[in-house]
């Protein structure tokens, strides 16, 4: 495996950059929530953090060939001793965290603001999948068929060891490796897929199985798209719509907070790097800027597609705004407690 990363613009399939990111094969890639950073994990156990604004600013001659010059990176984390399997990002304000897991059976928590390792703990088996629920509850799938849960001590990770527990009372969630985990839209359900060919839906409050479905082969990935549709990848086969969740729009934000602020637009818009291309060019209809214009055009036409796109966009913005507001409330409470301790 080469360790080379290829950065593409999906709307036009234009190659934006190519560079040598790792010494061994790349095992996972994740974009930050604002699309300004790219996180890459590799078989050599390293995790790299790349600022995209610096990656795509090079001239076009470097796009189709591997850049001879090393690309500028923000951080290089070398804490794992085996292949990195997952990279998860929290959405905090001043305490954004990055959680990484590996085949070396360890899970590590990093500070994105300072680039430092905050906490590390080890499980009984290799970790092959993980999801983060509400920025604090971590669920991990292992090669032994277990789903392990732990709570991260936010906003500050304590130096003491993190307590972990198995999701099931008997400790075994599947008969084989848990390759995929995904959180359901209702916030209380967890999906798991395994080499044993089963896709299971769990209630995280009771740790009980709500539903299960037998796939045609080992399940390697799970993806939940809007409106609750599930797509599962299993040994070359694709299962679409095994379950569909019907959630009333009014019930989607029961935990909303009043007085939330608007989330700013992403820092980096990749299409601006290629400003010589007009927004009306074929293939650019789904870049960030052109997507907004496309929604406006559809609204003028009063189409159902425009309404659905707008609702989905507003839903995501409101959820992010509510989470941001809740983080502010936590920070204020901590400051008040600290103030009281100082003056008493």
Automatic annotation (TrEMBL):
The keyword Repeat applies. WD repeats lie at residues 19-50, 77-120, 171-212. GO terms for biological process: DNA-templated DNA replication; rRNA processing. Keywords: Repeat, WD repeat. GO terms for cellular component: nuclear pre-replicative complex; rixosome complex. InterPro entries: WD40/YVTN_repeat-like_dom_sf, WD40_PAC1, WD40_repeat_dom_sf, WD40_rpt, WDR18/Ipi3/RID3. The keyword Cell cycle does not apply. PANTHER family: WD REPEAT-CONTAINING PROTEIN 18, WD-REPEAT PROTEIN 18. This is Uncharacterized protein.
């Amino acid at each position: 495996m080469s360790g080379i990363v290829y950065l593409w613009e999906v709307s036009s399939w234009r190659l934006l950059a190519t560079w040598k990111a790792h010494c061994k094969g790349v095992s996972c890639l994740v974009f930050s929530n604002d699309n300004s950073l790219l996180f890459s994990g590799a078989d050599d156990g390293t995790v790299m953090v790349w600022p995209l604004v610096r990656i795509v600013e090079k001239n076009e001659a470097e796009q189709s060939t591997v850049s001879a010059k090393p690309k500028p990176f923000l951080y290089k984390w070398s804490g794992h001793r085996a292949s990195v399997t997952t990279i998860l990002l929290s959405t905090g304000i001043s305490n954004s965290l990055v959680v990484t897991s590996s085949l070396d059976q360890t899970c590590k928590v990093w500070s994105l603001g300072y680039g430092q390792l905050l906490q590390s703990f080890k499980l009984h088996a290799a970790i092959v999948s993980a999801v983060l629920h509400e920025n604090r509850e971590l669920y991990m799938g292992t090669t032994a068929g277990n789903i392990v849960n732990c709570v991260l001590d936010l906003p500050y990770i304590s130096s003491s060891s993190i307590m972990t527990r198995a999701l099931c009372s008997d400790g075994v969630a599947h008969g084989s490796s848990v390759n995929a985990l995904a959180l359901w839209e209702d916030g209380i359900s967890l999906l798991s897929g395994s080499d044993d060919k089963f896709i299971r839906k769990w209630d995280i409050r009771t740790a009980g199985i709500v539903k299960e479905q037998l796939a045609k082969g080992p399940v390697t990935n799970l993806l939940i798209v809007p409106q609750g549709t599930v797509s599962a990848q299993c040994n070359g086969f694709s299962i679409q719509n095994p379950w569909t969740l019907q959630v009333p729009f009014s019930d989607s934000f029961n935990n909303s907070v009043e007085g939330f602020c608007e989330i700013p637009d992403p820092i980096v818009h990749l299409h601006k790097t290629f400003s010589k291309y007009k927004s009306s060019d074929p293939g650019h209809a789904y870049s960030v800027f052109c997507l907004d214009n496309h929604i406006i055009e559809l609204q003028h036409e009063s189409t159902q597609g425009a309404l659905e796109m707008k609702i989905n966009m507003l839903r995501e913005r409101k959820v992010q705004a509510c989470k941001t507001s809740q983080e502010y409330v936590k920070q204020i409470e901590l400051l008040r407690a600290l103030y009281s301790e100082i003056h008493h």
